[in-house]
Write a structure and sequence with these properties.
By secondary structure, the chain is α/β, with parallel strands linked by helices. It has helices spanning 12-23, 41-49, 63-72, 88-93, 95-112, 149-166, 201-210, 237-251, 272-283, 307-312, 321-337; strands at residues 3-7, 27-32, 54-57, 78-81, 118-125, 171-178, 180-182, 216-219, 231-232, 234-236, 259-264, 270-271, 289-292. Helix 9 crosses helix 11.
Length: 340
């Protein structure tokens, strides 16, 4: 079984990808500093798959620790790099935290495996497009000035990866620019697990529905959209995880060379208010919400053109909004009875 190093593998998207890698016959090796994840996720992965992956607790910003990791895991066939801070609002308030963590971790990882024939899948984001001139946005759209330091770290990281390939380094790299991951595994044993106040919409919805939060604030209803609220392309996290496996398979092919990027989404957008309604209709739970001012760093509307991923990755989404909402609610309900 080929070994795949999964940085941030105890996190939301990382843990689901670890499960899908196991399902596809790979041997994932998890690297995580547990700064934004829970150690018991490893047990949950074991419950789902029957396999306990190797786990290294490592801060990728620590160069010495990364060197020790590389020494311990030299025979890897590929890397999926999730490890990064990801909250748009927090990045606006504390940009240096984001620049330090998100950039240093990537550079140290690249330096650690430099010279080894490794395929790398990078967890990028649709935030690199800013507010696109045309929708749906495709991979040829210009990368605009970022709306947030978080988005800028993804832009800078992609530039680092392209420059690394251009230098002749023995890497093959794919950047996956994804839209808004939501939902949870069908087992309800893993899902989005924010530490502190959720920064993303769906966990805030589910925590409000379960009674952990008083109400949801919709940040702005005066955008140039049909109902005035922001529009995003929401993608089920399991579909997203399977796309990372598809990217690893593409990197394994001899004909793949250099660097490429792919959008990962459903190809359509839903507004914040539409998502709230979908949750209520799917679960039968009424939500308490109010309209607040716009939030710094938010793009008005974005959804992706995903034809390239369908053609070259042989991948497309299978799970719709109802499944996203139902699985997120099942996970929140599970957590209320089985707190981690």
């Amino acid at each position: 079984m080929p070994k795949i190093l999964v940085t941030g593998g105890m996190g939301y998207i990382g843990s689901h990808t670890v499960v899908e890698l196991i399902n596809a016959g790979y041997e994932p090796v998890i690297v995580d500093d547990l700064s934004n994840s829970h150690p018991r996720i490893l047990e949950q992965i074991t419950k789902i798959t029957g396999i306990t992956p190797v786990f290294h607790k490592v801060d990728l910003c620590d160069e010495t620790s990364v060197k020790k990791l590389v020494e311990a895991e030299q025979d890897i066939a590929g890397i999926i790099h999730f490890a990064a801070y990801k909250a748009v609002g927090e990045s606006v308030k504390d940009p240096l935290k984001y620049y330090h963590n998100n950039i240093y971790s990537l550079v140290n990882l690249l330096q650690g495996y430099h010279g080894k024939p490794v395929g790398l899948v990078f967890s990028s984001s649709c935030t690199v497009y800013g507010q696109p001139d045309q929708l749906p946005v495709n991979e040829n759209a210009p990368v605009k000035p970022a709306e947030s330091p978080y988005g800028n770290t993804k832009q800078i990281s992609e530039e680092i990866l392209k420059d690394t390939i251009a230098s002749g380094a023995n890497y093959k790299i794919i950047s996956l620019r994804y839209f808004n991951p939501v939902g949870a595994h069908e087992s309800a044993l893993i899902g989005e697990l924010p530490i502190g106040v959720p920064q993303n919409l769906i966990p805030y919805i589910t925590q409000t529905a379960i009674g952990k939060r008083e109400k949801i604030t919709v940040f702005g209803n005066d955008y140039n959209t049909p109902d005035g609220s922001c529009i995003r392309d929401y993608i089920h996290v399991v579909d997203l995880a399977k796309a990372h496996v598809a990217a690893i398979k593409l990197l394994e092919k001899d004909e793949f060379k250099g660097y490429d990027v792919f959008n990962l989404g459903t190809g359509k957008g839903n507004s914040v208010l539409e998502i709230i309604t979908a949750f209520e209709q799917t679960t039968g739970v009424n939500l308490n919400y109010s309209i607040g001012p716009r939030r710094d760093g938010d793009v008005e509307q974005v959804w992706g053109d995903v034809k390239k991923a369908k053609e070259k990755l042989n991948w497309e989404t299978m799970l719709g909004i109802d499944t996203m909402m139902a699985s997120a609610w099942a996970w929140e309900t599970y957590l209320s009875k089985n707190p981690l």
